[in-house]
């Protein structure tokens, strides 16, 4: 088991290395010279002289060969320095910290909504395979998958916030502010998880050990919720871990729809403002978190499925 | 006398030739027709047809394609024609789906939007498919360090949530439809690479491939002849489902402002432009939303149906139930 | 005459596939008395497994189309779900063929045995929170008490050092051990009828012998009936009191083990015994039965073995076979016994078995 963990970590580190290279190279695709842009800001909009630009480039190491710049950048990052925003001269790390909580809140709430909806639906769908309940929930799942989440957001907003006036249309702070965004975010995920759980349940229901359980005289309810579900959830857990990426994707859009602060809004604003240090920093953090999450999911998966973790075999 | 006969003869021979050509054509037509009928009743097609959802998916996709192709003829107005006096009017006879904040006809913009979405979809899927297949075949066939290296590259790309990376790339390159295409292609080829590589790995071990290699057949030929046909099924399924994803992503990126720029009619942009008028003119946001949903649904249904036919992982067999 | 423990009469179990119906069990009748071990012998596709599952009402996705199954007089084909579950929990148990797939991999072996014990104690009341072992909501003492019983059961089936294996998962057991664990689970319900569906087929020969020995011992110590399904006549000769020979979804012949092995009447039984490697002289070709098992689509007229039988004629393919009494309780379903070699007169079957 430990051998596997170590191997996985090394592999993860290799990926992180690649991630850092990719992220670093993003700056080189940006149009314009960062030196000029920064100086311009500093000078209040006036065009800096060529000499000033040259001096800036020298001082900030922009003329060094690229590998050197990369190493400098990486060392900075390791020490927690992700650079400074072009816009406000605040450290990127500070900006991220300020915007972290709303997004985490949204992601967790979205995941909760998704699981609460998807698990019962997936189970019922599988148990009533072929029936109307099954058909209905499959169609709903397909619609949920196919709907653009920004449209769903506006629809919910229209019904609940505008027409019914029950919930706020935008902003952040109270539980009420969290409801519509979380439901919007959770729907897409719920659709995916429902489909997956359903097919997983159907596979497990076909297994011999389910027949054994029935032959013991267990009530069908126990057979489904104890014997089947426990096995069927295993692949679902992996997917839920990977869905973390989906959550981040969704957060960007939903924060825009509901005008919520968060990492998503930060990213969008930064992209449009050509605030590349912020963009770069965010992308790096997100990727790192994503890689680490996947690593943890992989390891947990091994732990959850006793067949694999204990490295067991026959005597 | 000779002239008359020769003319008569010539007319007759032309008539004969025409007749035989006609007969040939009719029999060719009959042949094609019977082949089509046979195909219609063949097992895979029957299996596909048996599920209503699949057929619905096919119908939706075909409708989309036809709408895109015949857009100029179908749209009642010029999608970019602004009519500020008639802005934000509800559905009416003149504008069946209403007008937006610039007086443009929503229906026409929807129809031309289909064109935009499909064009981008096909382009992105095409490029992703090409790159992915090339990488997958190379990695699978070459094995060793090449395989390791390419798969690490795939892992690195997959370390970023897809939309996010596309967002950043598009943002850096500058907002435009072309740049979205590039961004989505860069992000999207990885699935194809994995699928193709998987197929290649399994086919590589087959006896007939080894036999072929022993005979001295060049690697490229082996790939073309043996590997690719096996890969076709899963790749077609992936491409169809990918179309759904690409259309959704394009709409999303355009919604965020990184894609189509006004006045180009794109469904995502339409929603973004219309959101300020959600209260007063709900049609500006909702009709494009519906359009996106149906397009994506169509491709998802079609892809699911194709997957059941082309790429079945599990085969149900009653005989196996311990008879 | 005491009522038989189990009475199967004219059982028909069908499977519907998308274009045709498979008559897996096509008119099977037999009885099992209390305390006897009955072997059901047949090739793959003879319907023996489906018969077993039908008795336990686990025939799904098949359907019992006709016939009756009576356990202690209770009609199982019409019984309610509760009745069936109660029977499974207290009277009938089944052991399946492949021990690698018949145990739930995510629960410990002892938990699966305890579950059996709990159902046996109270088949009608199975609260979800109890069986799911939801913390603070389930009866921990009950589970703990039953662990002792688990150790007893595991010893009974021959699992060494059971106390140390209480928290082991199925994948930590070898094939033979897993099958014993399955037996323990089955025995936990204190069954009067144990149905064993090819319990040794997936195991090594040495383990096979051990399992059969355990079955033999259990029959004596627990006074329970065993219905042993197998395709291996050697297994039958070890443990069974009576034998039922099946082919093509129907019973071909029934009799005591001795009768079947030494004096087989039905041409199929004779052919089957002929095929046994022990029957063949060294360096002689092994005998086989020409032809293939029928695929049982639709109703079959006549004898299912007719197409491969050396003594068949037109009459064999047109009408259902009469069950002929061959004396001493031996019965064969054949319309042409006069043409078939009579084992009391000629040398047929296995000499000196048992």
From TrEMBL, chain A:
UniProt membrane topology term: Multi-pass membrane protein
Protein localization: Cell membrane
Keyword Transport recorded: yes
Gene Ontology MF terms in the entry: nickel cation transmembrane transporter activity
UniProt key word Transmembrane: yes
Transmembrane segments: 9-29, 106-127, 139-166, 178-197, 232-258, 278-297
Keywords: Cell membrane, Ion transport, Membrane, Nickel, Transmembrane, Transmembrane helix, Transport
InterPro entries the UniProt entry points to: BPD_transp_1_N, MetI-like, MetI-like_sf, Opp2B
Main location class: membrane
CDD domains attached to this UniProt entry: TM_PBP2 (cd06261)
Pfam families: BPD_transp_1 (PF00528), BPD_transp_1_N (PF19300)
PROSITE patterns reported for this sequence: ABC_TM1
Domain annotation ABC transmembrane type-1: ranges: 100-301
Cellular component per GO, a single term: plasma membrane
Family designation: Belongs to the binding-protein-dependent transport system permease family. OppBC subfamily.
NCBIfam families cross-referenced by the UniProt entry: Opp2B
Full protein name: ABC-type dipeptide/oligopeptide/nickel transport system, permease component
Automatic annotation (TrEMBL), chain B:
Keywords: Cell membrane, Membrane, Transmembrane, Transmembrane helix, Transport
CDD domains in the cross-refs: TM_PBP2
InterPro entries xrefs: ABC_transport_permease, BP-dependent_transpt_permease, MetI-like, MetI-like_sf, OppC_N
Gene Ontology annotations of biological process type: transmembrane transport
Annotated PROSITE patterns: ABC_TM1
Domain annotation ABC transmembrane type-1: ranges: 114-303
Major place of residence: membrane
Taxonomic superkingdom: Archaea
One GO location term (cellular component): plasma membrane
Subcellular location: Cell membrane
Annotated TM spans: 53-75, 120-141, 153-173, 235-260, 280-303
Gene3D superfamilies, sorted: MetI-like (1.10.3720.10)
Record's bilayer topology term: Multi-pass membrane protein
Entry's family note: Belongs to the binding-protein-dependent transport system permease family. OppBC subfamily.
This protein's name: ABC-type dipeptide/oligopeptide/nickel transport system, permease component
Organism annotation: Halovivax ruber (strain DSM 18193 / JCM 13892 / XH-70)
Automatic annotation (TrEMBL), chain C:
Organism whose genome encodes this protein: Halovivax ruber (strain DSM 18193 / JCM 13892 / XH-70)
Molecular-function annotations in GO: ABC-type nickel transporter activity; ATP binding; ATP hydrolysis activity
Pfam hit, one: ABC_tran
Keyword Transmembrane helix: no
GO terms classed as biological process: peptide transport
Subcellular location: Cell membrane
Lipid bilayer topology: Peripheral membrane protein
Quaternary state and interactors: The complex is composed of two ATP-binding proteins (NikD and NikE), two transmembrane proteins (NikB and NikC) and a solute-binding protein (NikA).
Domain of life: Archaea
Coiled-coil region: none
Matching CDD domains: ABC_NikE_OppD_transporters (cd03257)
Domain ABC transporter: 6-273
Catalysed reactions listed for this entry: Ni(2+)(out) + ATP + H2O = Ni(2+)(in) + ADP + phosphate + H(+)
Keywords from the UniProt entry: ATP-binding, Cell membrane, Ion transport, Membrane, Nucleotide-binding, Translocase, Transport
Catalytic activity, EC: 7.2.2.11
Alphabetized InterPro entries for the sequence: AAA+_ATPase, ABC_Ni/Peptide_Import, ABC_transporter-like_ATP-bd, ABC_transporter-like_CS, Oligopep_ABC_C, P-loop_NTPase
Matches recorded under SMART domains: AAA
GO terms under cellular component: plasma membrane
Designated name of the protein: Nickel import system ATP-binding protein NikD
